[in-house]
């Protein structure tokens, strides 16, 4: 996973990469998240080493009304690196969430 992210980073503009990381890490979305008033599914990998779960998914779930937080053990940051078994679980839980809301 880290090697893949390193390879992507080496192909990107250093300025764009820095600006993107800065914007993502320094922007406070609290007021925006509090405005969301529709059922929201939040999905996060428990093994995400790039985005701390407590500062992102857990906080978002607290701030968004009617949200559901699904945490997948052993799953990293990138969807491309999700073990196959979690793809079927993720699809099933997403469909369950959508069916409850319709």
What do you see in this structure?
With 102 residues, this protein is mostly helical. The protein has a single domain (2-101), classed as Rossmann fold. Helices cover 53% and strands 12% of the residues. The protein contains 5 helices and 2 strands. The chain has helices spanning 2-11, 14-26, 30-35, 57-63, 84-101; strands at residues 40-45, 67-72. It has a two-stranded parallel sheet. The longest helix is centred in the last third of the chain and has 18 residues, at 84-101. The radius of gyration is 16 Å and the shape is globular. The relative contact order is 0.15. The model has no long low-confidence stretch (mean pLDDT 86).
CATH superfamily: Alpha/Beta hydrolase fold, catalytic domain
As laid out across the biggest beta sheet, the strand order is 1-2
State the shape.
globular
Overall pLDDT level:
86
State the end-to-end distance. 36 Å
Concise account of the structure shown:
The chain is mostly helical. It has a single domain, classed as 3-Layer(aba) Sandwich (Rossmann fold).
Keywords:
single chain; 102 residues; mainly alpha; Rossmann fold; two-stranded parallel ribbon; 5 helices; 2 strands; 53% helix; globular
How is the topology of this model organized?
Layout: H1 2-11, H2 14-26, H3 30-35, E1 40-45, H4 57-63, E2 67-72, H5 84-101
Parallel strand pairs: 1-2
């Amino acid at each position: 996973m880290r090697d893949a992210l390193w390879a992507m980073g080496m192909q990107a503009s250093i300025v764009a990469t820095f600006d993107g990381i800065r914007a993502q890490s320094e922007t406070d979305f609290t007021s925006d998240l509090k405005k969301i008033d529709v059922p929201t599914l939040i999905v996060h990998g428990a093994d995400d080493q790039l985005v701390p779960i407590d500062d992102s998914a857990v906080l978002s779930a607290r701030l968004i009304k009617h949200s559901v937080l699904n945490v997948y053990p052993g799953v990293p940051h990138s969807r491309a690196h999700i073990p196959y078994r979690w793809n079927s679980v993720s699809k099933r839980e997403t469909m369950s969430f959508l069916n409850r809301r319709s």
